[in-house]
Amino acid sequence: VKKINKTRYAILGMLFEKARSGYEIRQRMLGSTIHFWQESDASIYPMLRMLEDEGKVTSRDEFVGKRAKKIFEITKTGKKEFISWMALPAEADKHRDELLLKLFFGASTTKEKMIKQLLLKLERCEKTKNQLTNIETDTLATVTDTHPHKLFWQMTLRNGIIHCDAEIKWIKDCIEKLKD
Amino acid sequence: VKKINKTRYAILGMLFEKARSGYEIRQRMLGSTIHFWQESDASIYPMLRMLEDEGKVTSRDEFVGKRAKKIFEITKTGKKEFISWMALPAEADKHRDELLLKLFFGASTTKEKMIKQLLLKLERCEKTKNQLTNIETDTLATVTDTHPHKLFWQMTLRNGIIHCDAEIKWIKDCIEKLKD
DNA sequence: TTGAACATGTAAACGGTTACATGATTTA
DNA sequence: TAAATCATGTAACCGTTTACATGTTCAA
Lengths: 180, 180
Hints:
homodimer, 7 helices, mainly alpha, three-stranded antiparallel β-sheet, DNA-binding
């Protein structure tokens, strides 16, 4: 079973929304899919070139003053490929969590050190939750309810928030159990 | 900032618990850390050899009948390296979730197709939750409460279960929202 | 006797990140 | 005038997975 490259679909999806430059794709990801998907420059630019070679996207230069932007637009075949991918069952993600690995081996060190690790994670979770909540109340609120994307954007945001909540509660519970 | 190889610490941690063969390390991971950490054969065996070359582990052959097993034991320097890693702040994991990516782009396809995706994920979550619950009630119940590892094993299991619960609830909520 | 589980490894391919390289424009 | 941001790309490296390769032992 050959593993399929998902970077291409993340990019095609972003271009399905609207025509964008590589830079804009990255910015958009940072401001919307950051908690479940992100791509680096070194993935985006070569993939855009590859997609263009395959005829899945076309590009044109746009100028803002002297500064050039290469705007990419998805083609008919690009849309077709994207839509077929959308219908494919999503692969289960086997993610790695270093905190849980350390906690699993927690007996090999002191409880104080484990509490420190948990507190660091707690801080991060609360920060992430705030970010997501801000996107929900600021960015998402400006989108009209009839906008077809809105419902879906809200659902992915909610997903991030509920997992943060669950994690925060779990961390506090763990810390209490370690303090006895 | 050079990325550090975590496979070595996952293995050292397993050997810190007790001396094991490569195969046993893998089996142990499948039965305990599967929901947050896993390694393939092609990572484990070469890493064991590397650790042996570095003097972090030693090996001896053990025979069960004619079948040989290569049992690895962690050394003093191996323990030292592991302990210092344990004290290092755990890196934040940027994981990817293909379902969320598809859902984010949900407006480009039909609601029915998105519901199908969600139902598949629901099935998987419930299966995972059952697995974890079984480990908790079967395997973990046989460990005495005074066992230093028990508390930590329980906490990592709980983490898996609460995230499954949150995800299941979220999926059902999403499906309802898509059915109108 | 056949298939599952036990047991250990290697080679090649792939995906992704880090670091490097360059230059324009805007803001403090 | 210096720093931050906009903007696009390449090269090298590393970690991980897939596929391959081999052989034993036990249970149905």
